[in-house]
Amino acid sequence: MKLALNSWKKAGKVTLAMVMAIGFASCSEEDDMMDDEPMTMSYTYDFSGSYSGTHPSDFSAMMEVEEIDENSCKITVTLMNTLDGEMYMIHAHDAADPANTPNGTPYNESPNQNVFVQMASGNGGTVTASQTANMSYEEITASYEAFFVVHDPTQDISTTDLTTYLVVGAFAR
Length: 173
Hints:
About 25% of the residues lie in helices and about 35% in strands. The protein contains 2 helices and 8 strands; from the N terminus they run αββββββαββ.
């Protein structure tokens, strides 16, 4: 009887060890699977306080940055309360030293085509534009220094007159 009891205890310990090993292995797999899911972050931009024009002030923008792989991400911009039939210029301007720009702006006046430069036609409601950026999710959301701009479609495009920007803010922040 004592021998059978000792065998049972040994078998119980082995079974317990196997169950724990399988449990740890499955947790590791779940953790790895969670690490493989693409990261996504959203940012909301309100109407610019510097803006001076006739566009309705209920306009706003949302940016979503979604990881594609370790070297690229998808940037989707949604504009809310657009004007029907008007073309919105949306883009990123890289930050720069004002002493080194032609007009003393704290950004390069040419938009960065590798990150985001899109046009969206207003429809009186919500419109969306997307682009794949040739930068990693981590770079865009943590270290890319730039401005996000939406120009007023009812005014001439200006790269220096902030009063014509419906939205201006830090890119992906």
